[in-house]
Amino acid sequence: MAAARLQEAVQFRPMRQVDVPLVAAIEARAYAFPWTPGIFRDCLGAGYQCWVAESAEGVLGYGVLSIGADEAHLLNLCVDPAWQGRGLGRRLLRRMIDLARWHMADRVFLEVRPSNPAAIALYASEGFNEIGQRPRYYPAKDGREDAIVMAMELLPPER
User: Fold this and answer.
1) Which of 6, 117, 14 is nearest to 62 (CA)?
2) What residue spans define the domains of the chain?
3) What pTM was estimated for this model as a whole?
4) I want to staple 128 with a disulfide (CB 3.0 to 4.6 A). Which of 72, 96, 110, 152 is the partner?
């Protein structure tokens, strides 16, 4: 499927419990230390904004966003490795930012691995700035890996 056709064919919808096995399978393909299905179920149960990107091919990616105290935290954003590099991650990120705005958040925070330069570049290109680090935040093959903390102020949309 060409990138332009993929852009047209992908729709976003709230994640459902029935999606958890599909989402967890994508997570396992994408990360060496994936979230468990139970974590996704807990996020749904907590009322977080959990969304999937879906086409006729099935679920291609997902995002998980928590919102509280005028702040949003992007907890997870992932595109199936077979579908990466086609702009879907950017579209999914923008959807999650739109949800944060809709819920009246003033800013969005996220953590990202320093070993994930593609994600760092995506976040920076969409307006996120590095604001700090969390030492030994992520599990890693050789112990623990720091996290880069990034944030984006949610300004009113340009007209």
Assistant:
1) 14
2) 3-153
3) 0.91
4) 152
- Answer for the pair 95, 51: CB distance below 8 angstroms, yes or no: yes
E strand or H helix at 10: none
pLDDT in tens, 102-157: 999 999 999 999 999 999 999 999 999 999 999 989 988 889 999 999 999 997 76
111 carries an active-site annotation: yes
d(CA 45, CA 43): 5
Determine the CATH number of domain 3-153. Answer: 3.40.630.30
Selected catalytic residue, list 31, 111, 126, 137: 111
> Is 31 an annotated catalytic residue?
no
How far does Cα 9 stand from its chain's mean position? 20
